[in-house]
Specification:
Layout (H helix, E strand, L loop, with lengths): L4 H19 L16 H9 L2 H19 L2 H26 L5 H23 L8 H25 L2 H7 L2
């Protein structure tokens, strides 16, 4: 049994939104840190379907997570541009090497781009000069680590024979 692209996109968008909302309740040592779990379905869609479908998952996640988790304007102002940057970075790495590139590389590229743009936007809108502070280096390093973790999880999921059988990969 194979699932068509529209069903896969909707299913993974829903999973991404749920993970994004749940992530807000996981305590972290710094307020700006998230594990990036909601990016796993975006990367899965990139590997199992298409860039267009992955982009749709990202857009739905970027708008719906702030709606369901509160503080919508603040989260949209930071999350949407950084989500777009993350997608561009992930797709760029994926496109350069196709399915041969590890989801770990894709995850790191996305996490780093996401944090960099988030720091830049926050530095322009909320805390002037944030990108040039010491904390930005720490946050970029942490983002790289979370990108490795989400990449490993994505790799384990998309390379399971049962997932490949269902999603046609």
């Amino acid at each position: 049994m194979k699932i068509n692209s529209a069903v896969l996109t909707g299913l993974l968008a829903a999973v991404s939104v749920v993970l994004g909302v749940v992530e807000n309740f996981i305590p972290m040592p710094l307020p700006a840190i998230r594990l990036g779990l909601s990016n796993i379905p975006v990367m899965m869609t990139l590997y199992l379907s298409s860039a267009r479908s992955a982009f749709a998952v990202l857009i739905l996640k970027s708008f719906l997570v702030p709606v369901f988790s509160g503080n919508m304007i603040f989260k949209l102002s930071l999350g949407f541009p950084s989500g777009l940057a993350a997608f561009i970075a992930m797709y760029g790495v994926f496109r350069l090497a196709g399915n041969r590139v590890s989801p770990v590389s894709v995850g790191v590229a996305g996490a780093f781009a996401h944090m960099f743009v988030q720091l830049a936007v926050a530095g322009e809108l909320y805390i002037k000069g944030l990108l040039s502070t010491n904390i930005s280096g720490v946050l970029l390093l942490i983002a790289t680590v979370t990108g490795v973790l989400t990449g490993i999880l994505t790799d384990r999921i998309v390379n399971r024979p049962s997932v490949k059988a269902v999603f046609g990969g």
